From TrEMBL:
Positions of the Glutamine amidotransferase type-2 domain: 2-219
Protein family (similarity comment): Belongs to the asparagine synthetase family.
CDD domains linked to this entry: Asn_synthase_B_C, AsnB
Name recorded for this polypeptide: asparagine synthase (glutamine-hydrolyzing)
Acetylation as UniProt keyword: no
Gene Ontology molecular functions: asparagine synthase (glutamine-hydrolyzing) activity
Iron recorded as keyword: no
Its EC number(s): 6.3.5.4
The organism's taxonomic lineage, starting at the top: Bacteria, Bacillati, Bacillota, Bacilli, Bacillales
Length: 618
């Protein structure tokens, strides 16, 4: 994995802008600690930071190869990602006469573009964000993987386009102000920590949407979707479906275990991570690669304070031990205490360039930092719940009928946190309703489906296109901030396409959430683990965390220079701080973000406004 950035400018000679492109590139150093490179021409400048995973010696970027039919012209690429079908593509390109200088997938991707042009993306199986400059035609082609695992932001103005893996690369350009407007604030206060697809939050920033590509030249910018979910009748019975799901998952896990550097798995003892670990262990045994290393995260004294509830029915620790011993993995338990978690809130903002999922982001950042000491690549279970319907809101009538995003049901409470002036400007209920209507309007309906199946298809679409990107963005940003590559097998587009059309009654085989996934893994996992009730990424239950973030936030609010003061209803926030239990009964976002996370989110917002010197334009 890597960090990429670039600058296209029709009105300036970029060969004279080496210092600027180097500064933009330097902001991505944590994403690529192993090497750096820049390339400049009159109207295009590229920057790249490299995390070496495949062919460390020869895969330097930006990489240059000749165009197919033009003498003395080149294609230049900066690329962040992994192609899991690179061996097959390499063989196909060799039949077309290409000869490879490296064994890395960067060269495969670039020569695929040379041979097939923009439609090359339809051949790729992987996670990626890349930009290719074609010197003969002076045009830029950019693309992002189908599910949006790898990020790609851009900012366009007259005669100029800037892009980067993270907003910080674009913000490093001297002509780009750190500004946010009313719509950006609505994303933060109403939608956040999720984002509307394509929205960059920063003023005039956008994100290339998952499954989209872009062409930019002197005629302007054209963005198109090369992939989207398509609805069709499902033709397999339950047994055939389970067999197909199992085969697809096994294939994608084995593809993603290929690496020239150490690979590990993240293990929570739940269905999703246990399945990936079991498949990895089986592959390692067959390939003679030794024991799989596994990692888990927990918090000091969490066992003393844990209280089960619908969103988190039981603790992970006993199940982690169960699976590690069953699979004979080399296990690394990682544990953090409250002070570390509080202190990491600011580092998580710097990693994301925005406020995020509070302590859930912070703990993941710390977790990834520890993993990086032992491994460079990790396998993680994100996306299984969105794809197979595992979250509680898939199974609750009130959530299914809520006519809003089911992970964001506390709109009234959140609106009440805003200052009257900002609340009037943002119109939180209207903004959320518009974004929800936009999402529902995109759903590819299947003619002839009854109302119950249509409702579940819509719920699935919301989760895959609106909630899942939040977790993928979090995983990318927190892991890459420490130079760790995390692969997510459940995001294989072949698996997603297949599961999308499985009828709900088969998805819930055995009357269980993710029932068809469980059925596909029979014989792979022990029965008790296979049918363990879902438990999400762990958060701290230590009351000291609430005390710490509440105290810090109140201190900030006592500071007359606090940039939050004009934006929030301080009276209401102080009331919640005085009675935190009033905000802890219902998550205000997702499954886990309740009272303590609300105070932590506001702390992150305060730090973000201060550190980035954000100018608010209303």
């Amino acid at each position: 994995m890597c960090g990429i950035t670039g600058w296209i400018d029709w009105n300036n000679d970029l060969t004279k802008q080496a210092d600027t492109i180097e500064k933009m590139t330097e902001t991505l150093e944590l994403r690529g600690p192993d090497a750096a490179g820049t390339w400049l021409s009159r109207h295009c400048a590229f920057g790249h930071r490299r995390l070496s995973v495949m062919d460390p010696a020869n895969g330097a970027q930006p990489m240059i190869r000749p165009t197919k039919n033009a003498d003395h012209h080149d294609c230049v690429v900066v690329y962040n990602g992994e192609l899991y079908n690179a061996p097959e593509l390499r063989k196909e390109l060799e039949t077309h006469g290409y000869r490879f200088r490296t064994t890395c997938d960067t060269e495969v991707l670039l020569l695929a573009y040379v041979e097939w042009g923009p439609v090359c993306v339809e051949k790729f199986n992987g996670i990626f964000a890349f930009a290719i400059w074609q010197t003969d035609e002076e045009k830029l082609f950019m693309a992002r993987d189908r599910l949006g695992v790898k990020p790609l932001f851009y900012r366009r103005e007259e005669g100029r386009l800037l892009f980067g893996s993270e907003p910080k690369a674009i913000l490093a350009h001297p002509d780009v102000p750190a500004e946010v407007d009313a719509e950006g604030l609505a994303e933060l206060f109403v939608i956040g920590p999720a984002r509307t697809p394509g929205h960059g939050v920063w003023r005039d920033f956008f994100e290339l949407k998952p499954g989209h590509c872009m062409l930019y030249d002197r005629d302007g910018m054209r963005t198109t979707a090369y992939w989207q979910l398509e609805s069709a009748p499902h033709e397999h019975d339950e047994a055939e479906t389970a067999e197909r799901v199992g085969a697809l998952l096994k294939d994608t896990v084995e593809r993603q275990l290929v690496s020239d550097v150490p690979v590990c798995t993240l293990l929570s003892g739940g269905l999703d991570s246990s399945a990936l670990t079991a498949l990895a262990v089986d592959y390692y045994e067959r390939e003679g690669q030794g024991n799989v290393h596994t990692f888990s995260v927990d918090y000091v004294d969490n066992d003393k304070h844990f209280k089960s509830h619908d969103f988190q029915p039981n603790a992970d620790a006993p199940w982690i031990t169960r699976m590690s011993q069953h699979l004979n993995t080399v296990h690394h338990p990682v544990q953090f205490d409250t002070p570390e978690l509080v202190d990491a809130l600011e580092a998580a903002v710097l990693a994301k360039d925005l406020p995020g999922m509070a302590d859930i982001d912070a703990s993941l950042l710390l977790f990834c930092r520890e993993i990086k000491k032992e491994a460079t690549v990790a396998i993680s279970g994100e996306a299984a719940d969105e794809i197979f319907g595992g979250y509680p809101w898939f199974h609750r009538e009130e959530a299914l009928k809520a006519e809003t995003f089911p992970w964001s049901l506390a709109t009234g409470m959140r609106a009440g946190l805003l200052s009257p002036e900002l609340r009037e400007k943002l119109q939180p209920h209207v903004y959320l309703a518009d974004r929800y209507a936009q999402a529902i309007g995109e759903v590819p309906e299947l003619p002839g489906e009854d109302e119950a199946r249509r409702r579940m298809r819509r719920m699935s679409y919301l989760n895959v296109t609106r909630f899942m990107p939040t977790l993928l963005d979090r995983k990318d940003r927190m892991s890459m901030a420490v130079g760790l590559e995390v692969r997510v097998p459940y995001c294989d587009h072949r698996l997603v396409e297949y599961v999308w059309n499985i009828p709900w009654e088969i998805k819930t085989a055995g009357s269980r959430e993710k029932g068809i996934l469980r059925k596909s893994l029979e014989g792979v996992l022990p029965h008790d683990v296979l049918y363990r009730k879902k438990s999400p990424y762990p958060k701290t239950h230590n009351p000291n965390y609430l005390i710490a973030v509440r105290s810090r936030l109140l201190d900030r609010l006592d500071d007359p220079t606090c940039p939050l003061l004009p934006l929030i209803n301080t009276t209401r926030v102080r009331e919640l701080a005085a009675n935190p239990d009033s905000s802890s009964h219902l998550p205000w976002f997702g499954q886990l973000m309740s009272g303590p996370q609300l105070f932590a989110y506001l702390l992150q917002m305060d730090f973000w406004l201060r550190h980035y010197k954000v100018r608010i334009v209303l």
